[in-house]
Specification:
two-stranded antiparallel sheet, Glutamine Phosphoribosylpyrophosphate, subunit 1, domain 1, alpha+beta
């Protein structure tokens, strides 16, 4: 508990400076100032730089033809107080219709809310689109909201997970992944458990905003964003 309290102080004291380009050395000094034991300081710094956050969506179809979906998230690290992402919003981060299918999302929550992503995908399939085309249409709506300005879109990312009532599925994303060699993937289990890369609207990789400061290699370990 003591370490958790110290880490909370560390997060509160330096999180913004890190995001804006603060040095790792200064963060380590701050950890020492807070009384975090030397052998735990590196782990504390790592937690600040790479907070263990993330979002997961799961859609399931049983032998009776019943379909369900859920999206769970830890939220956005260092978020502004009161910020609500898309995961808990029915129709944005998750939507299921027993007649059509289920869809969910991970990525830039605010952008997904603007296009009601999961609901849009379900309605697209209701009107005859394939899971792939339905998801791509939702991604294109995000792009349209930025007038196709790539200087802004490169700092966004979105992945849609789509399952149709008949078992057809798709995984689509705005970008190929967060970094080269680490594409966005979806997990499928239809009797054969496997992972498949998503089909991306744009070639290339999304970028963090604001840009990360230079991070020592030993602190990059375990990061999904800086592999």
């Amino acid at each position: 508990m003591a370490l958790a309290q110290q880490l909370a102080q560390l997060l509160a004291g330096v999180a913004v400076r890190i995001a804006l380009g603060g040095s790792v050395g200064r963060i380590s000094t701050r950890a020492a100032d807070l009384g975090i034991e030397p052998e735990l300081q590196l782990a504390a710094v790592h937690k600040v730089l790479f907070p263990p956050t993330g979002t997961i969506h799961c859609s399931a179809l049983n032998d009776k033809g019943e379909i369900s979906g859920c999206t769970t998230t830890s939220g956005l690290a260092f978020k502004l107080p009161g910020r609500c992402g898309d995961s808990p919003i029915i129709g944005a981060g998750c939507y299921t219709d027993q007649d059509i299918g289920s869809a969910g999302a991970t990525g830039s929550g605010e952008e997904n809310i603007k296009v009601a992503g999961a609901h849009t995908i379900i309605e697209n399939m209701r009107h005859g689109m394939s899971p792939h085309d339905a998801g791509m249409d939702a991604l294109k709506r995000i792009v349209r909201n930025y007038n196709e300005d790539m200087s802004k879109l490169r700092f966004l990312d979105m992945t849609y997970y789509i399952l149709r009532k008949d078992g057809a599925y798709a995984g689509v994303s705005l970008w190929e992944g967060y970094s080269k060699g680490n594409p966005h993937k979806i997990a499928i289990h239809d009797g054969n458990l496997r992972a498949e890369a998503t089909i991306s609207l744009f070639k290339g990789y999304s970028q963090e905003f604001p840009p990360f400061p230079d991070i020592p290699e030993d602190l990059r370990k375990g990061s999904e964003y800086l592999k």
